């Protein structure tokens, strides 16, 4: 998201027609309020205001001042210690091991596979267990002291019982271990393993939670694999690296690699599970955007997970706020909250397997229903427009404040 903001700032509107000047501070405030309504899935509604710039009440300023000299230094040191410790674990247990590069050498512009997630044996077990444990410890350091998880009953997961009938009966039989064969037959159908975990996307904290819960692989920018400390950790996760800035219109390399990993996880229990955010970007946590079909093209079962971040003062949602400011304010909160809803594995019908858009839409509706989320048809393009316009209006607001001073 930070890169998106940089893109917006590097190409600001220049003409008066593109960026009309507002006459007063009240006009700018009204324009920002109207923007927040129009682009509601991306608007921050917490005490810290749009882009985390306030204005802050006096009491909140005092709390932040105290936290910055007490909580923040301690949490920062602990977080860096945990990161360094896990890096050393990954470094030691991948010594003398060659990274997995897929069936073919994928040195194309768009996709790169280079991971240690396919490494078997006790060393892989140590890496995974340490990763899950330290990820949870890191969340604790950030103030997520307890994370309640709920698993709805498969039989009552959705009120639209008829619409989800096929799914319900399949899940009920599998969860109870009943046979799907006729009476008298003793064979039982083994539940299919999900090929991918799908989740709504609210913050970078989502990744930490999923690491602590199941330690899956992610799709990440290629630059992540080259970062100090984090690069090796991402390879141990088994991330699929994507060159998102690539200008080639052919993205079959990306979808093909992801589909291969999804099918591999579905068929092979020892293969790393892949985790995808089908919305393609973050929201403020109250909405669910249109799903991209990448996670559903393979037609394998999916495991839907819903993340919610209740808050009183500061929202953990990473939207319209810089990464540094978000981390700082997050560390200033004594307690942060995260709630998780783990839905039953979704088994697609034949119609859904043949139509990935239908499959994605049905899973999205189910997640919205169970997570009490609002469906929105906005996408990444709308988000960029919102950020660009918001930056322009806030620049004008700063000018008004400077004139007053």
TrEMBL record:
Span of domain Phospholipid/glycerol acyltransferase: 195-310
Keyword Magnesium: no
Transmembrane segments: 64-89
Intracellular or extracellular location(s): Membrane
SUPFAM superfamilies: Glycerol-3-phosphate (1)-acyltransferase
Keyword terms of this UniProt record: Acyltransferase, Lipid biosynthesis, Lipid metabolism, Membrane, Phospholipid biosynthesis, Phospholipid metabolism, Transferase, Transmembrane, Transmembrane helix
Segments of skewed composition (Basic and acidic residues): 15-26
Pathway per the UniProt entry: Lipid metabolism
Stretch list, region Disordered: 1-27
PANTHER family in alphabetical order: LYSOPHOSPHOLIPID ACYLTRANSFERASE LPEAT1, PHOSPHOLIPID ACYLTRANSFERASE
Family: Belongs to the 1-acyl-sn-glycerol-3-phosphate acyltransferase family.
Name listed for the protein in its UniProt record: Phospholipid/glycerol acyltransferase domain-containing protein
């Amino acid at each position: 998201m930070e890169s998106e903001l940089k893109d917006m700032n590097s190409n600001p509107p220049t003409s008066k027609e593109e960026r009309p000047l507002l006459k007063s501070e009240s006009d700018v405030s009204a324009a920002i309020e109207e923007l927040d309504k129009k682009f509601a899935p991306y608007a921050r509604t917490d005490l810290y205001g749009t882009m985390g710039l306030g204005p802050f009440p006096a009491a909140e300023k005092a709390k932040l001042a105290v936290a910055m000299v007490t909580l923040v230094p301690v949490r920062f040191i602990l977080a860096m210690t945990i990161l360094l410790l896990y890096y050393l674990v990954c470094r030691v247990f991948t010594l003398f091991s060659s990274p997995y590069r897929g069936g073919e050498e994928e040195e194309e512009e768009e996709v790169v596979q280079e991971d240690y997630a396919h490494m078997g044996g006790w060393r892989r077990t140590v890496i995974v267990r340490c990763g899950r444990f330290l990820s949870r410890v890191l969340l604790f350091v950030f103030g997520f002291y307890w994370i309640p998880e709920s698993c709805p009953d498969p039989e009552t997961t959705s009120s639209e019982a008829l619409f989800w009938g096929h799914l319900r009966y399949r899940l009920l039989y599998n969860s109870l271990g009943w046979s799907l064969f006729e009476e008298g037959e003793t064979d039982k159908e083994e539940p299919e393993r999900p090929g991918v975990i799908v989740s709504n996307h609210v913050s970078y904290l989502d990744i930490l939670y999923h690491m602590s819960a199941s330690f899956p692989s992610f799709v990440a920018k290629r630059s992540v694999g080259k970062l100090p400390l984090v690069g090796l950790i991402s390879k141990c996760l088994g991330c699929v690296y994507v060159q998102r800035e690539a200008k080639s219109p052919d993205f079959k390399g990306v979808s093909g690699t992801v589909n291969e990993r999804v099918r591999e996880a579905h068929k092979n229990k020892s293969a790393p599970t892949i985790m995808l955010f089908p919305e393609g970007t973050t929201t403020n946590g109250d909405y669910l955007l249109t799903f991209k079909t990448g996670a559903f093209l393979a037609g394998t079962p999916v495991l839907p997970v819903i993340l919610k971040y209740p808050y009183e003062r500061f929202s953990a949602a990473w939207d319209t706020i810089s990464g540094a400011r978000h981390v700082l304010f997050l560390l200033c909160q004594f307690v942060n909250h995260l709630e998780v809803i783990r839905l039953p594995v979704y088994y697609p019908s034949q119609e859904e397997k043949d139509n990935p858009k239908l499959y994605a839409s049905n899973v999205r509706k189910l997640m919205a229903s169970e997570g009490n989320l609002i469906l929105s048809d906005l996408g990444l393009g709308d988000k960029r427009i919102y950020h660009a316009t918001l930056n322009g209006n806030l620049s004008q607001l700063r000018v008004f404040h400077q004139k007053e001073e």
